[in-house]
Each structure stands twice: as structure tokens, then as C-alpha cells.
From TrEMBL:
<dbReference type="GO" id="GO:0000160">
    <property type="term" value="P:phosphorelay signal transduction system"/>
</dbReference>
<dbReference type="Pfam" id="PF00486">
    <property type="entry name" value="Trans_reg_C"/>
</dbReference>
<dbReference type="InterPro" id="IPR036388">
    <property type="entry name" value="WH-like_DNA-bd_sf"/>
</dbReference>
<keyword id="KW-0804">Transcription</keyword>
<dbReference type="InterPro" id="IPR016032">
    <property type="entry name" value="Sig_transdc_resp-reg_C-effctor"/>
</dbReference>
<dbReference type="InterPro" id="IPR011990">
    <property type="entry name" value="TPR-like_helical_dom_sf"/>
</dbReference>
<dbReference type="Pfam" id="PF03704">
    <property type="entry name" value="BTAD"/>
</dbReference>
<dbReference type="InterPro" id="IPR051677">
    <property type="entry name" value="AfsR-DnrI-RedD_regulator"/>
</dbReference>
<feature type="DNA-binding region" description="OmpR/PhoB-type">
    <location>
        <begin position="1"/>
        <end position="87"/>
    </location>
</feature>
<dbReference type="GO" id="GO:0003677">
    <property type="term" value="F:DNA binding"/>
</dbReference>
<dbReference type="InterPro" id="IPR005158">
    <property type="entry name" value="BTAD"/>
</dbReference>
<keyword id="KW-0805">Transcription regulation</keyword>
<comment type="similarity">
    <text>Belongs to the AfsR/DnrI/RedD regulatory family.</text>
</comment>
<feature type="domain" description="OmpR/PhoB-type">
    <location>
        <begin position="1"/>
        <end position="87"/>
    </location>
</feature>
<dbReference type="InterPro" id="IPR001867">
    <property type="entry name" value="OmpR/PhoB-type_DNA-bd"/>
</dbReference>
<keyword id="KW-0902">Two-component regulatory system</keyword>
<protein>
    <submittedName>
        <fullName>Putative transcriptional regulator RedD</fullName>
    </submittedName>
</protein>
Length: 251
């Protein structure tokens, strides 16, 4: 967590979970009940409000730092029935990431260079797995899964933008890493096949298809999807459309 341009570690698990839960709804109140459900996940608790108050006090010390805030001026506010993190949503990296990702995807069809800038900025906000050490509550776990999936989509959009901007060699380098990390994600495989083809490596593109087909069969018991099969057919026939930037929009 960063305040006043400085990064601060939070050692206590429940305090981290409380901050993460409030940050997911920055600017909106989260009820005592919802916070207790998130922090203790159904575990029996004698006095949840007292426990939350204690964690809130510890969290305020981190958020306010050495400042002695005026009464009511702290960013962590106690409100009727709950707590509120009183910061603009744009101050939360997760929201900034989603905004940049959305803008980058929108720019991709007509301005791939601008899309690259936005999507790279979105990915630069990541410093590890989403909501790491934020606890086992359903809100944080669900949000983490959504953020991780959105991150992969942004990676897809970024390499699509590179292909549209005529940067196939750059796309190949990024896609090799992504395919190694996510070998069963067909979209990465399909994009790498296209990037390899555009850099004159048709044989490598076809071999990648066969490797992926075997892996899908052995690990999941399925055949490649229609998009991947179509890309294979297009590369086999050296379809002229593969040289067009619009081909990256195939889904």
C-alpha cells in the first residue's frame, strides 16, 4: 500500500483484508456485517464490531501516517452501520488498471499505437498476484480472480495492438512468454501462430498448433476450438488475409 508517495507494509492479516475490502468499494460504505463476513468468513466471533473497531484503529495509523488528522478528516471513516474508505476510486490501482484496460481496448481498432501505451500502463500497475495476502473472504477472492482474468485479456489486447501496429517480432517475444505460462490458453497460441507467420516462420506456427492440440487432448481431453483450427487452416493455405491488421480481431 502507498500513501504520500511512500509504500507501507501491513503485517496484520485482518487489517490487510479490511483495507482490501474497503478499497474494492472505495468511496462507498461497507457494512459491519459484510466486513465481518469477509474478515472471518463465517467463523464464530464474540463481538464483531469491537474487533472491527480495533482493526480500523490500526489501519488508520497506517493510512494517516505521522499526521494527526483533524476530527473526521481521516480517510478511513466510521459511518452509520459500517466503514468507508474516503478516497476517489481512481486512487485505487485496481480501478486505474480497469480504466486503462478499457480505454486501451477501445483504442485498439483505430489507434493501435495509443492502445499500446494505455495497455502497457495498465500492466505496469501490477506488482504480483492480485490482492495477495488479502485473506480468504469471498469478496477479495472473487475480485482477485476477475482481476487476474482481466490481466490476461489485457495481455491479449496488447499483442493484438502490436500486430496491428506492425510489430510482429515484439509480439512473438511477448507471446512466447505468455504461452509458456499459460499453455492451455488457446487465444495466446492462436496469436503466437499469427505472429510467427508474419515473421516468416510458417513451419514454427504449424508445429505450435500440433503441440497445443496434443496438450489439449492429453490434459483436458478436448480438441482445439474453432478459432484455433481456423487459424491453422489459414496458415496452411497462406491466406492473404493473414497479412491484414484486421485479422487480429478474429474471436
Amino acid at each position: 500500500m502507498a500513501t504520500d508517495g511512500k509504500r507501507h507494509g501491513i503485517q496484520a492479516n485482518k487489517v490487510r483484508a479490511m483495507l482490501a475490502t474497503l478499497a474494492l468499494d472505495a468511496g462507498r460504505a461497507v457494512s459491519h456485517t459484510d466486513l465481518a463476513d469477509e474478515l472471518w468468513a463465517g467463523q464464530p466471533l464474540g463481538n464483531a464490531r469491537n474487533a472491527l473497531q480495533a482493526h480500523a484503529t490500526r489501519l488508520r495509523k497506517v493510512l494517516d501516517g505521522d499526521r494527526a488528522p483533524r476530527r473526521g478528516a481521516t480517510v478511513l471513516r466510521a459511518v452509520r452501520g459500517g466503514y468507508l474508505l474516503d478516497v476517489p476510486p481512481g486512487c485505487v490501482d485496481g480501478n486505474r488498471f480497469l480504466d486503462l484496460a478499457t480505454r486501451g481496448a477501445a483504442a485498439l481498432p483505430l489507434a493501435p499505437e495509443r492502445a499500446i501505451e494505455l495497455l502497457q500502463a495498465a500492466l505496469e500497475l501490477w506488482h504480483g498476484p492480485a490482492l495477495l495476502d488479502a485473506g480468504d473472504g469471498l469478496r477479495c477472492q472473487g475480485a482477485a480472480a476477475l482481476f487476474d482474468e482481466r490481466r490476461l485479456t489485457v495481455c491479449e489486447d496488447l499483442v493484438r495492438a502490436r500486430l496491428a501496429a506492425d510489430e510482429p517480432s515484439r509480439a512473438v517475444a511477448e507471446l512466447r512468454r505468455l504461452v509458456a505460462q499459460h499453455p492451455l490458453r488457446e487465444r495466446f497460441c492462436e496469436l503466437l501462430m499469427l505472429a510467427l507467420y508474419r515473421t516468416g516462420r510458417q513451419a514454427e506456427a504449424l508445429e505450435l498448433f500440433h503441440v497445443t492440440r496434443r496438450r489439449l487432448d492429453e490434459e483436458l481431453g478436448v480438441q482445439p476450438g474453432i478459432v484455433l483450427q481456423r487459424r491453422h487452416t489459414e496458415i496452411l493455405s497462406q491466406d492473404p488475409a493473414l497479412s491484414l491488421s484486421t485479422v487480429t480481431a478474429v474471436t
